[in-house]
Write a structure and sequence with these properties.
- The chain has six domains: 1-40; 49-79, no CATH class; 98-111 and 332-418, conserved putative lor/sdh protein from methanococcus maripaludis s2 fold, CATH 2.40.420; 128-248, OB fold (Dihydrolipoamide Acetyltransferase, E2P) (Beta Barrel); 252-326, Elongation Factor Tu (Ef-tu), domain 3 (Beta Barrel), CATH 2.40.30; 428-579, no CATH class.
- The protein has 13 helices and 29 strands.
- Strands 4, 6, 21, 22, 23, 24 and 25 form a seven-stranded antiparallel sheet that branches.
- Strand 1 (51-52) and strand 2 form a beta hairpin.
């Protein structure tokens, strides 16, 4: 019995020692495991709770609130993009399916037999257009032209006009006719006076022979053609020389095409062009380029290319859409890269595509490319892509929208390697050293004060007030003596005067703000070189103005009152420099 008691005591002591050695370690491991789980969950929770601004995606905050730049409400930021470089972004499989995003691999190709395709419209041949005017003042008693598009022939009666001036002139003729033997020069002068009003010899002879004054006179067509515009109605009073009708001769018409900058080098006057229309798709009209516009339209970055077409059959109507094909405009290149036109987004300044760097992942990044010649369906790629790269060819705008929402480089938001140029503050143009005489600096200080008043008018978005303040600033600027300035300094002042003059002429606040961008750049450049300012000047910038390129302004206060958006985004912007 004593032996069993000893065994029991030994077993109890063993269990106690086992608990002391192993139980505490297990408890510590469990606590550490729970802490790790809690830490992991907390970290994941932080990632989910990041918030950003839809207008300023560079803003990232760990909790909801308002954007510190524009004041808009923050939205949840998308997560799960670990492992991506700064300009890459990821789309879900569901988003790709809904947008029908399709990609293609870039390969070597050829410009289709060197054929260039241009789009345009049929317009009237302005060389054959004529304006039918009234040669004397009066009232239109009867108008024989009832509608636009009516055909008229030369010598046809267009209208009948009551002309009080001709009544007096006819009486002079009848009186002078009785004196033509004794005063032939007076008689001839009266006849010539009637001829200046386009009365024919037969009409003048008829008045002289009848001895009666006519109150109504006919107006005959001087050309044949189609009435393109009717400028008067029956019963209207007209003055001498006032246009009555516009008549177009449509036996020949112009085909006017738009050619982009990259296509101009391949075009020349006298080049053969084949024109097709939507109305007659199986018929071609052969012609030659007769004119290439000498100036480039800055809004569309195109020039007008014109060809004259024979239209004696009357098939071509002004306003018709046409296409022109020009052969031999680009040499064949075996290594030329071509991409579908649907893959390229063009902003007017840049051309961009979206590349899929990993074929197995829905990851994309924007790439700027340089375009060459174009065909009906494709562009030649000069630089920016390599053979074998995969690009988006369908759903490109959807992909671009996703890039903008995620704050990545996109068609309208140039960041990363395409970092947008800052107009102000740190650029060499603004910080460029100028040699301003002391007398000029003193005389220019009131101009700065006028600028501040002008800026405040922009803040309140009052176009009429802007006009008045611009004129006042211009008058002060004209009093500043500029004789001792160098060419560069005078150039800045000339641009300031030019912008102020334009502000006083345009009617809309939007156009005035466009001029204010240039005005402010030049004002900041001069202000940087004034050695003694009576009070501090703050240089502020709005990153969204000037098509997201940024724009600046001067202020006596560090508080932001945005002149480019006014109350819409009054606090959008920040101070980037202080001039003391």
């Amino acid at each position: 019995m004593k032996k069993y008691i000893i065994y029991f005591v030994i077993l109890a002591v063993g269990l106690l020692l086992g608990y002391l050695f192993f139980g505490s370690n297990s408890e510590e491991a469990k606590i550490g495991q729970d802490a790790a789980v809690e830490s992991h969950d907390h970290n994941g929770e932080e990632a989910v709770q990041m918030w950003t601004c839809s207008m300023h995606p560079q803003i990232m905050q760990p909790e909801p609130g308002d954007c510190p730049i524009c004041g808009m409400e923050l939205i949840p930021a998308e997560t799960g993009a670990d492992g991506l470089v700064s300009d890459q972004f990821k789309l879900s499989e569901n988003a790709l399916a809904l947008a029908n995003v399709q990609t293609s691999v870039v390969g070597a190709g050829q410009i289709s037999e060197g054929v260039m395709t241009l789009s345009g419209k049929i317009s009237e041949n302005q060389e054959n257009n004529a304006v039918q005017s009234s040669y004397f003042s009066g009232r239109i008693e009867k108008l024989n032209i009832n509608f636009t598009g009516e055909e008229v022939r030369r010598g046809e009666l267009l209208a009948t006009i009551y002309a009080p001036e001709l009544v007096a002139a006819q009486q002079e003729l009848i009186t002078a006719a009785s004196l033509k033997e004794s005063q032939p020069k007076l008689y001839q002068a009266v006849r010539n006076k009637l001829k200046l009003w386009k009365l024919s010899e037969s009409q003048i002879d008829a008045i002289e022979a009848s001895g009666k004054v006519r109150e109504y006179f006919p107006v005959y067509a001087t050309v044949s053609g189609t009435v393109s515009e009717k400028l008067v109605n029956e019963g209207d009073y007209v003055k001498q020389g006032q246009p009555l009708l516009k008549i177009a001769n449509l036996n020949t018409v112009w085909a006017v095409f738009d050619a982009y900058e990259g296509q101009i080098a391949h075009l020349r006057v006298g080049q053969k062009i084949q024109v097709t229309t939507n109305a007659y798709p199986h018929r071609e009209f052969d012609s030659k380029i007769s004119f290439i516009e000498p100036t480039l339209a800055t809004a569309t970055r195109t020039v007008n290319v014109r060809a004259e077409l024979d239209n004696r059959e009357g098939l071509l109507k002004p306003g018709m859409f046409v296409q022109g094909r020009i052969e031999g405009t680009a040499p064949k290149k075996e290594t030329t890269l071509t991409v579908p036109k649907s893959a390229v987004l063009w902003t007017g300044v840049r051309s961009v595509v979206y590349v899929k760097p990993n074929p197995k992942e829905p990851i994309f990044e924007m790439r700027e490319v340089s375009l060459g010649a174009s065909t009906e369906y494709s562009y030649e790629i000069i630089s920016g892509l390599r053979p074998g790269e995969e690009i988006v060819t369908n759903g490109t705008f959807t992909v671009d929208a996703a890039a903008q929402l995620q704050g990545k480089a996109s068609m309208m938001n140039q960041e990363g390697p395409l970092e947008k140029e800052k107009i102000l503050g740190t650029t060499d143009a603004v910080q460029m050293q100028m040699h301003l005489p002391e007398s000029f600096q003193k005389e220019f200080l009131p101009v700065i004060d006028s600028y501040i008043v002008l800026k405040d008018a922009f803040v309140t978005s009052q176009p009429e007030a802007v006009k008045e303040r611009a004129k006042e600033m211009l008058q002060r600027l004209k009093k500043v003596k500029t004789g001792d300035l160098q060419k560069m300094e005078k150039g800045h002042l000339f641009k300031i005067k030019d912008m102020l003059t334009a502000m006083g002429e345009v009617a809309t606040i939007e156009n005035q703000r466009d001029h204010f961008i240039v005005l402010s750049e030049n004002m900041v450049a001069i202000a940087h070189n004034i050695e003694q300012l009576p009070q501090a000047l703050y240089v502020a910038e709005c990153p969204m103005a000037n098509s997201n390129r940024g724009a600046v302004w001067l202020s006596h206060s560090s508080e932001i009152h945005n002149p480019y958006y006014g109350e819409e985004m009054l606090s959008c912007g920040s101070v980037i420099d202080t001039l003391k």
